[in-house]
Structure formats: structure tokens, C-alpha cells
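hey all, quick one before standup. I had two proteins in the batch that finished overnight and I want to keep them in one place so we stop losing track of which output belongs to which input. First protein below, input sequence then C-alpha cells straight from the run.
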Amino acid sequence: MCQLGWGEEGEAWRWRLFAWEEEMVGELMLLLHNVTLQVNKDDRWLWTFETSHAFSVRSVYNFLTVQPPIATSVVVSSLWHMDVLLKVVLFTWRLFWDRLPTKDNLFRRGVIDYNFMECVVGCGSVESSAHLLLHCNCFGSVWHFIYRWLCISAVVPLYVQDHFIQFSYSGGTAKVRQSILQAI
């Protein structure tokens, strides 16, 4: 790879890279530096999530749905080392431990009846932390605008902790991640 492309005679990048993308390309180059291609060996597909090493949609589905969420304690412990407002850290801590007064939590504690668990917007879903902040058509759509504003292409994960990790690491370097979290 040279400057902005895959070699002097190869394909060039179609757009100018951001600084964090250039850093990622450099890291990729370091990873690929020690890779040696074997000319006399045929290429083959290898899917490590099946014992037969054959790809199947079921194995992808199982991989994506069966994996347990990342340990909340690991994610929460990283919160206390960030330079953000204390009220943001406390809200996030309550969010990660599912301690916000959402309707599903109020129902679990016997405060409200089952009939009143619907989302405040009236979308028909049960009001939970993950629903309100990530999946609700009204409130969750804010993330789509933020992603578009930051030029990030991402799928909103199922769990809030996964979203925190995905969003905080989408900025590239630690310095960029820190400034993104401070901006929020």
C-alpha cells in the first residue's frame, strides 16, 4: 500500500481517508506484513463456527444470538476512568445495571400493572432501557442521526453495553474515542 491506495499500480482509495482511518490502515499493514502467501496451496473457505468448517446461515444466527452479552462489570468499570460529567457516569451506571425507572422495571417491582408496560411513545413495544435508547422508533432514531453525522456505518446492537462498546470504539484511536465520549 502506498499513500492512499493499494500499491503504485493497484487500486487507489476513492475518498480521502480520515486520520483515524490512516492509522487503522497502518495497523492493517503491520498485521499483513508477516503474512506469506503459499503459491502451491489451493485457497479454500474455512468457517470456524461449525465443526465441519462449512458455512451455514444457522451457524451465523447461532453465533449472533447465543453469545452472552459482555460482562456488565467490565463495561461499567471503564466508565469511572473517563473524563465525563459525574451525572452522565451515574446515569450510564444505572443504565448498564438496568436500574432506570422504565416501565418494565416498575412492573418487576410491582409498582405498575402489566397493562401499562407499553412504551411511552405508543409504538406497542414494552418500555425497557434498551428499547427506549436503541430500538424505539422515536428515541432510538437519534442514534441513526448521530451515526450519520459522524459518518459511521453500524448496526444497532441488542444490548446497551454492546452499543457502548461499539460506539466508543468506532472512533479509532483512544484519543478520538475519549473526545467522542466527552462530546456526548
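OK second protein, same deal, sequence then C-alpha cells:
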Amino acid sequence: MCVSVIGQSPGTTTKTASTQPDPTTPPNGIETPLPIQSGMVDNCDAFHLVVAEDTCDTIAAKYKITTTQFVAWNPAVGSTCSGMWANTYACVSIIGHNPSSTTTTTTTKAPPTTTSASGPSPTQSGLISTCETFYKAQQGDTCEIIAQQKFPYIYSLPLFKRWNPAVGENCDKLRPGYYYCVATQLHHPMPGIINTCKRYYQVSDGDSCWSIQQKYGITAAQFNKWNPLVGSSCASLWVNYFVCVGV
């Protein structure tokens, strides 16, 4: 029977298995290659020999499965995939699994949103008409504090001023108690994003969760935790939205 699995996260050193368990007769009728790590599901029907350069994400992408599935089938790798051993076999498919039905991890378009005819009040004149999210300025706020600290996905002061032209070139007309635009239909964060995010990335057409994770050196578990609405299968990675890539 299957008694182990594999996995690895970027930046971690793949351990090497030193012992091989005695062969057993698998209950599913499919011979399991050795060695394996403990805990592998017993209905596995396809295997991958882990090499030193492998990560959970790269193996999952190769076999068109999600990283979540890979970790579930190979629990010994751990939630961050730091326990995967080189030169062991990992499960990459189970009986009844159809890779063609696995949700792909490419970008999709966000569902259409309805913008109300009028936002909250009071606001200053000239507010951009495509505003989706408003922020009520507090005593002590400045354009820098709003755009670069409270809503860091904006980052650009010229952009914030373009959305809110009444604040003035030097932002000396920002008024506490007034509402200001902090996200538009073409520049906004993913809903449900972690509120302690410090680094953002704007999703482009053709991106995948895996490609973003590789670009910023983060794990699938981190990306899913910081951007829960995207989903573990990455089905809701929306073009033009900002996702969190660092906390």
C-alpha cells in the first residue's frame, strides 16, 4: 500500500531519502514504486520521481493538477512544501482523477460590476466617474499617506491626484471628512485581499498563479492566504486587478 509522498517549496533544499521500505501489495492493484515518503494516499495511480530542482508548484504544473491537490495526496511534504525529498516518488494522480477537468490557472475577466450613479458624500468636484471605492479622509491624512500607506496598490501620487483633482497639485486642498477615490474600474485590488499587504502586482492577461509565485519567490500557500478570492485552483485570477505578493 502507499505509505509516503513528496513535495518542496522554492528556496528550500530538497532532502534525499536514505532508506527504502519493503515492497508491499497495493490495495488498488497499482504497484507503487519505491522509495516514497510516509502518508501518501493509497489510491494513487501515477507517480513522479522527485529531483533536486523540483518544487510542489513545478510538479503540479507539469501534471496539470493544483498544488493543493499535490499536497493533499502527499501530506509529508507539508503545507509549505518544505518536506519534499529528492529521489523519492510522489503521487501526481489518483484513481478517478481526470487531469483535463482540472481548472487551469490562467487569468480570467472579472464579472461585471455595477457602479452606483452617485457615491458617498461629501466629495470634492471633479472626482473620476469610474470610481469604485471611496475613502473618507481622516485628520492628519495626506495624499502620500492615503496613496502609499493606507492603499499602497495606488502608489502613484499623480494617479491619486488624477482621480481626485480637487486636492490640488500640492495636495493642500485635501479635506478631512470628505470622500476620495481610491480604486477605479481599471485600477483596483482583488476583493478579500489581506489587509496587511505591503507589495502588490497588477495581473496581466496570460498570467497564472504559478507564474506570479515564481516571479516573486513565494509559495502557493502564501499566495492563497493573501489572496483568498483567487481560489486554490486559481480560477478567479482577474486581469487588471492587484494581488498581494508580499506582507
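Flagging for whoever picks this up: The chain has six helices and nine strands. The longest strand covers residues 44-49.
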